[in-house]
Amino acid sequence: MKIANDQDLDLVEISPNAKPPVCKIIDYKKYLYEQKKRQKELKAKQSKVVIKEIRFGPNTDDHDFDFKLRHAKGFLEDGAKLKAYVFFKGRTIVFKERGEILLLRFAQALEDYATVEQMPRLNGKRMIMLFAPKKKK
Q1: Mean pLDDT throughout 87-116?
Q2: 45, 62, 78: which is the final residue of a domain?
Q3: Are residues 96 and 62 in the same domain?
Q4: Ordered DSSP codes for the chain
Q5: 34 and 71 co-located in one domain
Q6: Has residue 11 got a pLDDT over 60?
Q7: Which terminus of the chain is less hemmed in, N or C, by CB atoms within 10 Å?
Q8: Are residues 20 and 57 in the same domain?
Q9: CA 16 to each of CA 5, 24, 34, 74: distance values in angstroms, whole numbers, following the listed order
Q10: pLDDT in tens, 12-29
Q11: Are 131 and 73 a contacting pair, CB within 8 Å?
Q12: What is the average pLDDT across 72-98?
């Protein structure tokens, strides 16, 4: 403690359970600052996964399909994942194959922009398909 006081530094206990306890002479405020800075740097490097959704009906027309396709391309170019789904309401559930054809056509149109993560799968009243953006070269 005398050595730490002479150097105007702090005596920090590193391992209290060891025999004898291990201590280190450091500037504790500077240590905390560097630790906080390191944490902030790691947080900045993390990337959050954004999932955008696009909803279709089983009877979606060509113009609506093209409109939603343009939006999907934009989302994928921004690096977001995409969840496209056909929502069946009421008796439209009898058109399952129409919804699957629609999603497969959508996947084919996005071939240059995305890879298919999950093929069309019926989940309750929704038929869902997932896309991940392709890596830029």
Answers
A1: 89
A2: 45
A3: yes
A4: -HHHHHTT-EEEEEETTSSSPEEEEE-HHHHHHHHHHHHHHHHHH--PPPEEEEEE-TT--HHHHHHHHHHHHHHHHTT-EEEEEEEP-GGGGGGHHHHHHHHHHHHHHTTTTEEEEEEEEEETTEEEEEEEEPPP-
A5: no
A6: yes
A7: C
A8: no
A9: 20, 12, 23, 56
A10: 888 888 888 888 998 989
A11: no
A12: 89
pLDDT at 50: 85
Instruction: Answer yes or no: do 14 and 28 share one domain.
Output: yes
Are residues 80 and 22 part of one domain?
no
Query: Quick one: 41 and 57 in the same domain?
Result: no
C-alpha closest to that of 114 among 70, 81, 87: 81
Identify whether residues 97 and 68 lie together within a single domain. Answer: yes
Bridge-based pairing of strands 51-56 and 22-26 is unpaired
